[in-house]
Design brief:
196 residues, mainly alpha, Helix Hairpins, Arc Repressor Mutant, subunit A, 2 domains, two-stranded antiparallel sheet, 10 helices, 4 strands, 5% strand, elongated
Length: 196
Amino acid sequence: MQTQGKFVDYYDLLQISPKAELETIKRVYKMLVARLHPDNADTGNAEQFIVLQRAFEVLSDPERRAAYDADYVARVRQPLPSVEPGEVASGVDAELSRRVGILCVLFKQRQTNPNRQGLSMLELEQITKCPSEFVSFTLWYLQNKNFVASSDNSDFVITPPGIDYLEANLPANTLASGRLESAMPWERENGRQPIH
């Protein structure tokens, strides 16, 4: 589950759902093996090939997968600090918090996962721990303002105006600001100051 001390999202690596059946895992694994095998002169990648093998070993073994899934849920699906369940109340402040929180998550997803730049409605509900009607309303607003768009596979992705909105609203939401800044280590490494 770890590679050089870093948690690896095997589901994201294989680009499959955490609920994928074994046959789907095997089919996707075979396709990626052919692409990443070091003998493939065009697309081979020895490092990714090794991680792919580890992913298959874990996800194809029921006991190891169950242990991985417990770790996966704890690491990948933690609720946003800026959108705690207690904040599900109606009101402008709670809605602003949801907007900024969802944009933070979509920003991080787009920045760190070039193979899958967006998240589904269900994933956003799970991450925010908000009921679907609240997430739907927030996404409706964000889409109509062109801050979020739907990708070809119906995932929601942040747009450049969405990034601008996020930057403009971070001072009003310090918890979301801290989450975004932790998602942007490249700014600190390159001498850029966090947005305040």
